Amino acid sequence: MSKNNPAAPYRLPTGGLVDRSQVLSFLFDGRRYTGFGGDTLASALLGAGVKLVGRSFKYHRRRGVLTAGSEEPNALVELRSGARREANTRATVAELYEGLEACSQNRWPSLAFDVAAINSLLSPIFVAGFYYKTFMWPAALWEKLYEPVIRRAAGLGRASQQADPDTYEKAHAFCDVLVIGAGPAGLAAALAAGRSGARVVLCDEDFLLGGRLNADRHEIDGSSGGDWARQIEAELRSLPEVRILLRTTVFGAYDDGPGARTFGALERVSDHLAVPPAHQPRQRLWKLIATRTVLAAGAIERPIVFGGNDRPGVMMASAVRTYVNRFGVVPGRRVAVFSASDDGWKTAFDLIDAGVAVEAIVDPRAVIAPVLLDQAKRVQARVYSGAQVVDARGGRGLERIVVRQPDGRVTKLSVDALAVSGGWNPSVALTTHVGGRARWSDDACAFVPGELPRGMSVAGAAGGSFGLASALREGAAAGAAAAAATGFTGAAPPVWRADDEALGVTPLWYVAESTAKAFVDFQHDVTREDVALAAREGYRSVELLKRYTTLGMATDQGKTSNLNGHAIMAALTERAIPDVGTTTSRPPYTPVAIGAFAGSHRGKHFKPTRFTSGHVFAQERGATFVEAGQWLRAQWFAAPGETHWRETVTREVKAVRSSVGVCDVSSLGKIDIQGLDAGEFLNRVYINLFSTLPISKVRYGLMLREDGLVMDDGTTARLGTHHYLMSTTTANAAKVMQHLEHARQVLWPELDVQMVSVTEHWAQYAIAGPNSRRLLERLLGDALEVSNDAFPYLACAEFGWRGVTARLFRISFSGEMAYELAVPARFGDAVIRAIMTAGEEFGVVPYGTEALGVMRIEKGHIAGNELSGTTTAEDLGLGRMMSKRKDFIGRVLSARPGLTDANRPVLVGVKAVDKAAQLYAGAHFLALNAAATLENDEGYITSVAFSPMLGHWIGLGLLQRGPQRMGERIRAHSPLRGGDTEVEVVSPLFFDSEGTRLHG
Amino acid sequence: MADPVLDLRMALVPGAPLTARTPWPELAALSSGHGGVSVKARDGLGLATVIVRRGQLAALTERVRDRFGIVLPQGAYRSEAAGVAFAGTGPEVWLASRETGNGFAGFLANEIGAAAAVSDQSDGYAVLRLTGPRVRGTLAKILPVDLHARAFKVGDVASTVAAHMGATLWRLEDAADGAAVFDIAVFRSFAGDFWHALSESAAEFGLVVTAPDA
User: Fold this and answer.
1) Are A8 and A47 in contact (CB under 8 A)?
2) CATH of range A303-422; options 3.50.50.60, 3.90.420.10, 3.30.530.20, 3.40.50.2300
3) Best interface-test mutation with A: which of B47, B54, B112 has the largest number of A CBs within 10 A?
4) ipTM score of the complex?
5) Which chain A residues have a beta carbon less than 8 Å from that of B54?
């Protein structure tokens, strides 16, 4: 023992797989310690003699490191500081790096003295179901009182509350064979599959390949297990089709597609570094798509439930071996072993070989294999067979254990560490994620995989084969078979020589004689007594047990606790374990940061943004942008000195109505429709007739959904005999395309129709206002005659202009004489600048969606607010458009009683009686003296605007029997924003009701 | 247009060809040296959607063979001859392309006649050519498609999603250095965000911008 190393009193002077030349300094709770390269935070802390690493969730009991793997329930710490602080990091998987900072959590004011530990004294009231029973009434207090108090008391570490400075990314990997776990079975499988030439992905959550080979003393073909793993790794790395993902947890199995299944995996790319290197993410989320999978995830050692089994210093026997053999760290100076399996005895022998005093081997089995007894005798270890540890005692850490022998004699042994082995539970989680149920095995004394997900096989301990030779044999066979199933029939599976010791376990689930608190679930502080209470109160199904006691519901998913809890329930209810069953685990196998799921799609990149080709121009002109679906559109262009957006919008509207303005309308959907039956097709999707539309003309159209409600509106131009161009609203472009494709492919495959979105090919600008024609004349010159005679309202043309094919449509949303000019998108920037130049003399202004909205409301044109998916053509005042000469989608259901009810709200205009009053969209219509109740509701305001032309607020709304109520006074009731306003019902056509401006 | 002022103004508006703007302004700065991925803009490419008219597949196949010497691919494949290519992007739908893009859609419509509907998409898509030793590792972060040499062969096409954006991808003949070569097309309006996703994904491998083909 390294008495000469005061900084690491529990570190052996030699041995292990740590790099002793690399001394790493780190902070735990503000104190400085050192460890070595290759350490985990847990091994470094244990090496430094730190046994107390955290406080438990409910009772705030002192806790130490229990395991050496990802199943760790106790040693959860806050890792790093500042914005990088991560709560609930398992010290057993956190790799040590220079300058690491960690803090214990769940304690106040300090780890050694924790005020909330009084919960432990109050434990009779903190029993299972406590929350349900205590905080049931009054329920109203849940959110405000109970939950915050409970949360503070049961804190699980603190979030940093700051933006994560690191990046995350997602990646896909496809393979013939996915091997999960790189212990002996996984390495054998990967090599067998890799040698065949198959594409192999091998994942392991550790930073070192080998699994238990790095933690136990084995020989394979004359090499140490660790050396063998390194040899296999070298060969795997030489195979071009094999990819090894270290620090990668396959956390979930998901659906299978054609011949392959998808798995989720998390690669901790930079978690072992203080700061990720340049251009490297902290973590990478892999979507692995595998034709075949070999699950070689190993097994997790099971604790035994006995009094005081959570004292710091009580540790899993296999974890003790890991710390001794892999990290050169001993858990104590006087150690006892409490093992119900032959496997646990290895811990005693390894400790003795490492020079640690083993005070006793306590084995509940009456009959012990002679070979073990012989070996124990050789090393002079005291053996208590048929005995049990009934209590583990101590203050800050374990000080003594109480051993009860079969004759009832009780012996107290002074120890500072206790290694516990209750047997092993195969890691079956990934076999259950897609619906499989684990199956009880009497041989393994544990649940083993039942029906496997299609394409998956299991090898080694994950399947309940605990011997090394079995693991190698099964791994090689599974790897070769998986490769063969994907068409890679190579050499015979490799064969290795190794020992094949049986586990030799007679499970001891709990020590009945224990009187002190005995923990089943360490992370959620579920005790044996809690399970007994659940049994007494009738929560006997494992699913009810789980929810009543929270057994297995912590972030460790009960990896060390579930089976013990279920076995205790079985014993208490006198059932066999397979009859009690077990709960099914769900993804993720270990916690995954939400950031990893988001990947690079964070902030503004949460979804893609679409930019029109006029975007740069709009930016230069100081536009404020608004999101319209994925598109970014100019909302308004504030001029210097304008202080309120409404001032800007009013100026833009007035400029358009008095001279000319230009608006980028590129984001509106454009669908190119061709074919001999294109006209018939349009007849069937629009409510109005289109086959009669002359070439070079545009018509406004309205389409319904199958259920008779309005879907979208827009114009369609006829470019040729069998060639149309449909426009849709920006918001509904994709939905309309989908709708049309459904109609074309499914409803009427017999029609000759071809369609494709050409939205992106064209940049399109609306040029509106009394001077729009003069602007166009300057802009287009001889390219196109745009006089009223040659190019009247609703004309369209395609023409050559300045080296491009351009299109012009005479359509208007503003009610002004207006045109839409379309050019191939690469010229969109040049054309908006050319329009501005050509319009300079007329004071042309660029205007945004807000001015467009104001003008359409002034004209009573419907838009998104009215196309809400709840309105009919009749509701929108467009009922007369419904052709009686043809059938169309939505015709039949638009005639159903609900949609033809004379009381349905219909589109009207409203204006406030008090001209100064503001109107609010969403305000509900009520009769003047009616109470503001649902029964009196007569409709609501859909759109409002301050009309620059009229000088007051105007609104569009849906009002019951609206058209018959012109001139009537009602109220617009908006308790949310604007109280009660008396309004007059008017025509929705507020401005230029004769439409003279339109025709110019 | 009798107004003399108007005539004067008209003369002031230049009739010179309009200036095109690239969807990839970020690629204006070329880089030198070697990287894991190299990228160039393919702005000059002519693109058109070709959708067969009902019952005209045989006629279209014949036309395409006659006029372009191309066997019209059935499925997600691409055939190329003399600078013109047809890539299958859906059932009886192709994305046709020509290296010299100007006027391609009109030309194609004339050549194909009544056998198919042709729609110009030359400006609808922004296209990049990607190559380099780490091109697959880069695309693995963006695309859910198996691009392994055995799975995605020269001439294969994928209509897929790239970092939440629709994308069409095809593999060309390997480069002289043996690296795989892909063209990837996204809707023009997505170019900025696609570039963001691509450049972030390629950063760890080193991204080199090379000059577009003349």
Assistant:
1) yes
2) 3.50.50.60
3) B54
4) 0.94
5) 675-676, 750-753
